[in-house]
Design brief:
The chain is mainly β. The protein has 2 helices and 10 strands; from the N terminus they run H-E-H-E-E-E-E-E-E-E-E-E. It starts with a helix and ends with a strand.
Length: about 220
C-alpha cells in the first residue's frame, strides 16, 4: 500500500490550490474610451483658439483585493483606481490660457476566479469575472494670465455607473502563501451620466477598454 502511494505521487500530476484568506495588489495598464470626455476637450479649441497638448492617454491602473480561496474557487471584493487627463494651452506676448482636465475613476466591486490546472504545477490558468460600481469625477481648472492679472476657475463633474470585466490569466504558486499573477481582460461600462452641480448632463463617463494586470497575492491560512 505504501509503495502504491509513492508511485501515485511520483507519476500522477497533482496541482494544489491555495486555501484561506487572501490580499492582493496589482499594477496594470488600461486603454480608455471616454468618448464624451474627449469630445468635450476637442470642442474647446474651436471657441478659444487653444491647442490640445494632452488628450486623455492610456495610463497605469492600481488594484487591491481581499478574498477567500478554496479549491479551484477564489472570490472576494476589489478596489481599482484609474486616472488620465487632458490639457489645452495658448500663450502669446500678452499672457496665457491653460485648461487642465483631470479624470479619475474608482471601481468598487466583487470578483470570482476559477483556477484551471495545466499539468505544469505550480502554474495554473484562471478565468475571472468582476462586476461592480464605477465612480468617476472630472476636474477642470482654467488658468488665465493677462499681463500682470490672473484668474482661476474650477469646474467639477461627477458620475456613477456599472462595470463588468471578464479576465483570463495565469497564476504561479511561488510558495503556499505567495502567488504571482498575470492577466488581461476588457472592461464594459454601462450608464454613467455625469452631473454638474447636481444637475444631470448628457456627458457619459465610459472607461471601456483593454485591461492588463500583473500582481502578487498573499494567502493567510
Amino acid at each position: 500500500m505504501r509503495k502504491l502511494v509513492i508511485i501515485l505521487f511520483l507519476f500522477y500530476p497533482i496541482l494544489t490550490y491555495a486555501q484561506g484568506w487572501s490580499i492582493s495588489y496589482s499594477i496594470g495598464y488600461g486603454t480608455y474610451q471616454l468618448d464624451d470626455i474627449k469630445s468635450l476637450e476637442d470642442a474647446m479649441p474651436d471657441n478659444y483658439g487653444l491647442k490640445v497638448t494632452d488628450w486623455f492617454p492610456d495610463h497605469i491602473t492600481h488594484s487591491v483585493s481581499l478574498g477567500y480561496a478554496t479549491g479551484h474557487h477564489h472570490f472576494g471584493t476589489n478596489l481599482s483606481y484609474l486616472t488620465t487627463g487632458g490639457r489645452l494651452h495658448r500663450a502669446d506676448y500678452s499672457g496665457s490660457y491653460t485648461v487642465d482636465m483631470i479624470m479619475n475613476g474608482y471601481r468598487l466591486g466583487a470578483f470570482y476566479r476559477y483556477y484551471i490546472g495545466t499539468g505544469l504545477s505550480p502554474l495554473s490558468l484562471y478565468l475571472q469575472m468582476s462586476p461592480g460600481m464605477l465612480f468617476s469625477n472630472l476636474k477642470m481648472r482654467e488658468d488665465v494670465i493677462v499681463y500682470s492679472e490672473s484668474a482661476q476657475e474650477n469646474t467639477k463633474l461627477k458620475g456613477a455607473g456599472i462595470y463588468l470585466e471578464p479576465t483570463i490569466g495565469v497564476n504561479y504558486r511561488f510558495t503556499d502563501w505567495l502567488h504571482f499573477s498575470l492577466g488581461g481582460g476588457y472592461e464594459f461600462d454601462f450608464r454613467g451620466k455625469m452631473k454638474l452641480s447636481g444637475q444631470k448632463t448628457q456627458i457619459e463617463s465610459k472607461w471601456n477598454g483593454l485591461r492588463l494586470y500583473g500582481g502578487i497575492i498573499l494567502f493567510y491560512h
